[in-house]
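Sequence in, structure out.
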Amino acid sequence: MDNSYTETSREEYTGENAAENALEKVIPEIPVAQPPQEGKTSLLPKKEGQEDELIITFRKPFDFEGETFRELDLHGLEDLRGRDLTAIEKAFNKTGVSSFVPESTTTYAKIVATKVTGLPAEFFEDLPVGEIEKIKNAVVGFFYKDE
């Protein structure tokens, strides 16, 4: 058995020679999803006769810090990236809530909704329980959507 090896320098793997490196050539180019077209708010087409699952309509108007909310737009879920999920998981772990399926908890859904709407956590803490359940169901449904 031949135990010899070839010594290479770091420069062969970075910088100007990176394109020539065989390791760089074996990594396939990853396709990138195109952003929604202007006037289109969702990456997934809405089926005719189907309501938009990412728009949460409140049963009663909700007042928060002098502003009245009648609905909540969760389309920001479509823009989440892996780094966002990591940050959400870290925030969830800091809450002390324990779950084998954290993404199905109300706490996780509130953290996600805070991230995708830009509203403060207090907004979600003050919402009536029925509205929080709608938000949780939309978040869980989005993560587990089978399309």
